[in-house]
Amino acid sequence: MSNVSKSDRARPDAERKREQRKKERRAKLMIWIARRSSRNRSFIDRLCRRLIEKASTRPPEKDFMRDELIDNDLGFDPDELDRYQRGEQARAS
Amino acid sequence: MPAPFPFDPQAVVDAKSVGRPVRAGVETKRTICGSCDIACSVVTEVEKGRVVRVRSSDNPIFRDNICMKGIIAPKGFAHPNRILHPLKRVGERGSGKWEQVTWEEAMADIGARLKKIIADHGPEAWAVSTSQWNTATDHGLGRRIMNHIGSPNWISGVALCAGNTAAVNRLSYGWFPMGDFTNTKCIVLMGHNPRRHSWTPIYNYIRSAQARGAKLIVMDPRRSSNAERADIWLPLKVGSDAAMMFGWLKVIIDEELYDKEFVADWTLGFEELKVRVNEYPLERVAKLTGCDPEMIAKAARLYATEGPSIIPWTPITDMQRNSTSGIRLQSILRAICGYLDVPGGETLQGFNPDIINETELEMHHVLSEAQKAKQLGSDAHPAFTYRAQGQLREATKRVYGQEYANIVMGCYMATPSATFRAMAGEGPYPVKAFFFLGNNPLMSYANMPLIKKAMMNQDLIVTHEQYMTPSAQLADYVLPGDSWLERPWIMDSFSWSSVVRFAEKSMEPPGECKSTFEFWKLIAGALDRPEIVPWNTLEDLYDYRVARTGRTFAEIVKETDVYFKTPEFRSYRKNGFATPSGKVELKSSVLENLGFDPLPYFREDPPADPDFPLLMFTGVREDGFFQTAHRHIPEMRARHPEPEFFLNEATAREVGVAEGDWAYVENSLGKIKAKVAIKDSMPLGLVRVPHGWWKPEMEQGIETLSGAYDYADAQLCRDDEEFLDREQGIPHLKGIPCRVSKVGEESASAVENPEMEPAE
Fold it and tell me: Quick one: which of A8, B421, B508, B682 could link to B648 by a disulfide (CB 3.0–4.6 Å)?
């Protein structure tokens, strides 16, 4: 089977199948955790959310998602947006 | 494309663990961004009835799936030029003059005129161009009305972007797979280049996968940012993707790296495929692609042995003269390597059983077979029309429980070029009424001169829009559309996946702006068929769609970020694949029945034209814009004030242009201008043409079309047979012969250089 690595290929068929089943179980568990995390209503949900946060948090120096434009965004002033929409000034900030 | 897999612990790597305090008087709403087609889950902050901020979701699953287009949305939709009231044309078509009317007046006139056109020419004389990426609350209601009235002529930009991929994938294994980025070990990007501010969630998934050790293979003529980060970069000749995949198959089959068990049990046509693949020895592939044969072989081995691997959707193979073969070759690679419907591979999700899907709402069964047969383009280029896709009805019912599966809206479309020819009076029958919603058709399909002629030959043109686009300038009625801040939404990835998300409405639409749901409801009423859209409000429709969950929309939207069924890997073991044979058809029975080559093949470029010695590609979007939109937003334009051609230095020197010069790119169809940007990442002889440029600040009306004649790349996109994919009839945008020349001083721009390096 080519959906396993070369080293995996050397192993007996039964072992590979066992490994495959394990992967599927892991994937299903991850989906379950994600589903509970998404729900975020009960203690278990929040625990799942914490688990995902912990597993996925990166140290800042390795965090490729840092982006000044997004980190520094403070939004807009509603009155200024109103004036902008009425064409009373060129920019809203 | 929508976010592929919303539950991805590895994709939440941003981990900006800051609190989310909300100021007094500020309310938050959970919603889904609609500023591009990726549909990120985000949060809006609402103050004094206005959205004042868009930020990424509080849910760690979606955290940091946000880009500059989403952040700027509150200002973009507050622009003083936004259309807030229905407008009716005054004077000749394209006069640029309008009078304000009421919705009632507009609908009464539109209904009367559309009914007359249908009475005079038949229902097929009404064509619609749209896609739900932009309109959101269409939910198939446009198709539903057209199906009841009797018109098969619905066209969309998805014909050359994702919709056609879905349709062609169905020919091989009955569904459009979605890559499992979370568990994959190898990702192959075919020219696609997701970035921090473009296709953001995909960028996140790729970076996360790489961070945990997954391999990345990039095929791209340019040294793109993903190419720079790849394990293997194949700098192939533009448009030669299908040839490259033949090379991969040659290696994988010769070295027996494929999944023999899966091939034996679940595929048809492997021996015939082998014969075809043998026509592509690596030496030939190297010549066709311009890549080193050793590197081709290395990449093929990596794909086949490091798996499970994924080949995520790419727009690049959607827009080539070998599109059908290219997409089919991707399907074949996925299948023979055993990556279909396995963890870390390509999942075939099917419909979500608890949510009424949009295909069901579209009611394709009510359109008669006689009217389906009239679908424009289906005679010559049927791949995504009823003629081809209809052959999968029984199989789709067997596997997915219903006969029609309009995945990504792309499976029952008319062919755009054939539709515009009919509109221009050059088709098998006249098309005299044209509606377009959240769509700028003049600039979104190939051959803009034909589209203009087509639109000028209409008796009725109606658009539902936010801004006065060049296409809207040719309409009879411009009706004001709402924005994603101003409506709720159910997002089911257009049936691509079984994952469903829900969005709250954040604020009221300004002026008299209405949702697409309301637009279609009014049209059904104007055609004296109000029963076709029986729901009083959008929320009523949503209650109907989610009823099987046992909750109302109001309840589910408050409680649920993601609603999905647990994937069942290798689900084909139950009912087979949704193809006529029940197997993966390496040799397509549907294409064979239609008289096409059932195996993939590669059409080489036509002989070089000495008048047009360079090649160009288009279709690439810039970070600040989505397609033809967002040029009106000052912050976005500051980043890309002018359109830019990319050339490498040697090519620029050869044609006599330098950095910052204004230049023309020209071919046998047309000519546009832009500034020259020298990029060492571009290969020799290739020109990158920016997509979708016009300038909202320029004069409106048919004489100028707000700069579209100067800048719109659709004027260079040919749709003559040599430049169309045979099976689909979509245009070749990746390698169009052209030439470049310097613009005289009189046309030079006074605008300063961009503040930010333009996107790749």
Answer: B682
pLDDT for res A11: 67
| Contact residues, chain A, for B332 at CB < 8 Å | none
B403 touches chain A (CB under 8 A): no
In a domain, A1, yes or no: no
| Domain B106-165+352-496+513-536 CATH class label | alpha beta
Sequence spans of domains, chain B = 106-165+352-496+513-536, 178-347, 614-747
CATH number of B178-347: 3.40.228.10
Q: Which residue of B has its CA nearest to A41?
A: B559
> Nearest C-alpha of chain B: how many angstroms from A12?
15
Q: Tell me the whole-structure pTM to 2 decimals.
A: 0.91
Contact between B107 and B522 under an 8 Å Cβ cutoff? The reply is yes
Q: What is the pLDDT of residues B373-396, one digit of tens each?
A: 999 999 999 999 999 999 999 999
DSSP B31-67: EE--SSSS--EEEEEEETTEEEEEEE-SSTTTTT---
Q: Residues in chain B with pLDDT < 50?
A: 1-19, 749-759
Q: Does A18 touch chain B (CB under 8 A)?
A: no
| Distance, CA of B628 to CA of B690 (rounded, Å) | 10
User: For residues B93 and B458, what is the distance between their CA atoms, to the nearest angstrom?
Assistant: 10
Question: Distance between CA atoms of B510 and B575, rounded to whole angstroms?
Answer: 50
In-domain check, residue A21: yes
pLDDT surpasses 90 at A60? no
Among residues B566, B559, B567, the alpha carbon closest in space to that of B501 is found at: B559
Contact list in B for residue A81 (CB cut-off 8 A) is 50, 52, 74-75, 78
| The predicted structure's pLDDT at residue B117 | 98
pLDDT at res. B564: 83
CATH fold group of domain B614-747: Barwin-like endoglucanases (2.40.40)
* Per-residue confidence (pLDDT) for residue B561, from 0 to 100: 83
Q: Which residues pair with B724 in a beta bridge?
A: B731
- How distant is the Cα of B128 from the closest Cα of chain A, in angstroms? 31
Q: Which value does ipTM take for this structure?
A: 0.87
Contact B196 A87 (CB under 8 A): no
A92 touches chain B (CB under 8 A): yes
- DSSP symbol at B11: G
User: B44 vs A57, which has greater pLDDT?
Assistant: B44
List A residues 52-71 in contact with B (Cβ-Cβ < 8 A).
52-53, 55-58, 62-67, 69-71
**Average confidence score pLDDT of chain A:** 77
User: B101 vs B104, B521, B658, B712, CA distance in Å?
Assistant: 8, 19, 50, 31
Residue A24 lies in a domain: yes
Kindly state whether A19 is in contact with chain B, defined as any CB-CB distance less than 8 angstroms.
no
Please say whether the beta carbons of B209 and B306 come within 8 A. Answer: no
| Pair A6, B305: CB distance under 8 Å | yes
Three-state DSSP state, B240: coil
Q: Give the pair of three-digit tokens for residue B722.
A: 């040599």
Which residues of chain B lie closer than 8 angstroms to A73, CB-CB? 53, 55, 71
> pLDDT for B337-379, tens place per residue?
999 999 999 999 999 999 999 999 999 999 999 999 999 999 9
Residue A91 lies in a domain: no
What pLDDT sits at residue A9? Answer: 56
pLDDT tens, position by position, B669-692: 999 999 999 999 999 999 999 999
Exposure letters B35-72 (e unless 16+ CB within 10 A, then b): bbbbbbbbbbbbbeebbbbbbbbbbbbbbbbbbbbbbb
Q: Do the chains contact at B305 and A2, CB–CB below 8 Å?
A: yes
Which residue segment(s) compose the domain that A34 sits in? Answer: 6-85
Using a CB-CB cut-off of 8 Å, the residues of chain A touching B499 are none
B14 touches chain A (CB under 8 A): yes
Q: Looking at chain B, which residue has its C-alpha nearest residue A86?
A: B80
**3-class DSSP state for residue B657?**
coil
